[in-house]
Amino acid sequence: MSKESFTLNDRIHLRDSCICPKCIHPSTRQKEFQTCDIPQDIQIRDLHVSPRGITIKWAPEVPGYSEDHETELSQAFLQEVAGVKAQLDDGAYVDRQTTWDRETITKNNLWLDYNDYIEEDEILYEAIKHVHKYGLLFLRSVPDDETAVERIVGRMGRLHDTFYGRTWDVKSIPNSKNVAYTQQFLGLHMDLLYTTNPPHLQFLHSLRARAPGGNSLFSDSYRAAETMYLHHRKLFHVLCNFPVQYHYHNDSQHYYYTRYTFERRPFPLLPPSLDPASGEEGGTTANISKVNWSPPFQAPFSMASDYAPAQPQGSRPTLAEYLEAAKKFNELITAEENLFEYRLQEGDCVVFDNRRTLHARREFDASKGERWLKGAYLSDDAFYSRYRVLEEMFDGQWVEDGRVRHPVETL
């Protein structure tokens, strides 16, 4: 390794990555200079290489830094930025989310004891990895306590407060303003798509399960999106480009937001997976980041001719095309082989990804017993913060969209 082996992009990247006390404040861990302060003609004045990493002196330096300033970077960090880690570590560049059908989730789902989850960080880490991978997790033996769900959420992060409150009750209520608070069948949907930042995880703790019926249903929207991408490509692109409006409107509240059914990552970071029918695990060819589907809370469509961006082939999806695509998506998510059904028992808590795992409920008879769930939400920011902290604690690394990253460290 010589000074000449580094391109200008390499030099800018390495200088920007310096975490010495002059560049990163020791207590706040925040950056003390701006990337735009780096000279555009920055060169390596002196380079020292050792098995532990490299030490670099720069010329010209960032304004305000002396010639004695040194950037020290570890071998682990250099492997990451050079892409070497991707070749050496079979955990690199592998999407940690796996699509599932009923058979797959029945075989692989995780049931954890409440006390173990609350008391042991390793069990918490196992729970977080599992709910990220499959979008569904169950806890058992949760205390008969209205505040238990707050403790469950609190292990992952601060509660996501909404107009429903920090926590909320799912019961059959006369003259309810939300279909969830009735005893009738509630179809597959996601919560709060009419808000700017819908919650990432939803938690439902079963406090009473004494009414006949009321089984919970779950379906993996990522699997349906993947199947459409592989076998119904035109319809897949319609759902990527046709805007759907969602609202929650009553006398005192009016929430409204527009979303595409499929949201994709801006660029693919992950290797394509095989056809879901093959049984292979891995990332999604469809490159999906979020799915939005909540028919009970759908608002009237906006028919402005220039509302939706043009598709790659140059045409704009029509409402008739959306209808065809939505029918196919609904057919896939409600197919018997793709539905996981379970009747929550008292003391169970289900945790699921609200931007991926669709949930529904069968009708129940409130006149013959009480059905009471205590619910709460968690934001994606809180969830992934906790995930990264535990990854660094137990694995010495963290993963962003499937890419293994190591904490930037000095020698």
Topology:
Elements: H1 8-16, E1 43-50, E2 53-59, E3 71-74, H2 75-82, H3 84-88, H4 102-108, E4 111-113, H5 114-119, H6 121-134, E5 136-140, H7 148-154, E6 168-170, E7 186-189, E8 201-209, E9 216-220, H8 221-231, H9 233-241, E10 243-249, E11 254-260, E12 262-264, E13 288-291, H10 319-333, E14 339-342, E15 349-353, E16 357-361, E17 371-378, H11 380-395, E18 398-400, E19 403-405
Parallel strand pairs: 4-5
Antiparallel strand pairs: 1-2, 2-3, 5-15, 6-17, 7-16, 8-15, 8-17, 9-14, 9-16, 10-11, 12-13, 18-19
Helix pairs in contact: 6-11, 8-9, 8-10, 9-10
InterPro entries: AlphaKG_dependent_hydroxylases, GBBH-like_N_sf, TauD-like_sf, TauD/TfdA-like
GO molecular function: dioxygenase activity; metal ion binding
Cofactor: Fe(2+)
Identify the CATH architecture of the largest domain. Answer: 4-Layer Sandwich
Share of helix, binned: 25-40%
Helix/strand/pairing category: alpha+beta
Number of helices, where a helix is a run of at least 4 consecutive DSSP H or I residues: 11
- Average per-residue pLDDT, rounded, comes to 85
Query: Quick one: CATH superfamily of the largest domain?
Result: Clavaminate synthase-like
The CATH class of the largest domain turns out to be Alpha Beta
Overall domain count:
2
Q: Tell me the number of strands.
A: 19
Strand order of the largest sheet: 4-5-15-8-17-6
C-alpha-based Rg, rounded? 25 Å
What's the SSE pattern?
HEEEHHHEHHEHEEEEHHEEEEHEEEEHEE
CATH third-tier fold name of the largest domain: Double-stranded beta-helix
Query: Distance between the terminal alpha carbons, to the nearest Å?
Result: 17 Å
